[in-house]
Amino acid sequence: MNNSRIVRAAAVQISPVLFSRDGTTEKVLQAIAKAATQGVQLIVFPETLIPYYPYFSFIQPPVLMGKEHMRLYEEAVIVPSPVTDAFCSAARTYEMVVVLGINERDQGSLYNTQLIFDADGTLLLKRRKITPTYHERMVWGQGDGSGLKVLDTAVGKLGCLACWEHYNPLARFALMAQHEQIHCAQFPGSLVGQIFTDQIEVTIRHHALEAGCFVVNATSWLSPEQVGQITPDEQLQRVLKGGCNTAIISPEGTHLCSPITEGEGMAIADLDFSLITKRKRMMDSVGHYSRPDLLQLHMNTEARTLIEEYKWQFTSDADVFIPKT
């Protein structure tokens, strides 16, 4: 593990181009190009930024949200596709690790999906949120444990979770136990108000302290005009404001730059990996401070499939099924 390096990271607070996959994609590509001029090596974008977070599901009852749900299907991202190819190219061109949230369409289902592109343009990971939250369950399917991975990337050992997955301590521990150096967190933003901003603050700082890693967190932001596009109801508009907290946190739980809680912007900070050792010297949750003789995590990392193929094996006793190799 290399703990003697410095990585420049950016967390982007950005507005989607509502109802447009192509429009949001172009805006994100422009942000990557801008970050490159500032020497950024890792860039993190918000949850399901492309095409946009399904805010409609938070303010509409299921019986009324069919039209908006169908529109999201039409604008969602297929993996692979020209959209993902564009980000492979951008990551390779700027030699930058890119962490991006999308609404993924897989045939007749949508998923809250996180993509990690390495600095050589390789799509390293496509992981789906394991449990959509509350209203989101009307929109997205569930992911599986195959995405709970920490990856060796050009900027170090990288893991990611989306929004309230951070309230699942075993999901976080699964990444911690793989010695995550940088944790990429994504939240929707422009939701629920100041209480959500405050909750994000507690959540990301706690994970940084507990994991002894950096946390790079990005949230989206909706302009007043966009809130009006989503709903003309002024009462409902109130819950589509605030809730933004784009920030970069050190392994000691401190902010490395000013957080962004309003408007669009880019939080940029240098991650000094020596701080990981400094923190873990005192408290290593998955090392000298753990007690595996008392407490262990058992997890299923297999990708969920609908069909498992078998073949016959003939033995002297009986004919039996064994998994096909």
From TrEMBL:
SUPFAM superfamilies: Carbon-nitrogen hydrolase. One of its GO terms (molecular function) is catalytic activity. InterPro entries: C-N_Hydrolase (IPR003010), C-N_Hydrolase_sf (IPR036526), Nitrilase (IPR023919), Nitrilases_CHs (IPR044149). Residues 7-273 form the CN hydrolase domain. Belongs to the carbon-nitrogen hydrolase superfamily. Nitrilase family. This is Nit6803 family nitriliase. The lineage of its organism: Bacteria, Bacillati, Cyanobacteriota, Cyanophyceae, Oscillatoriophycideae.
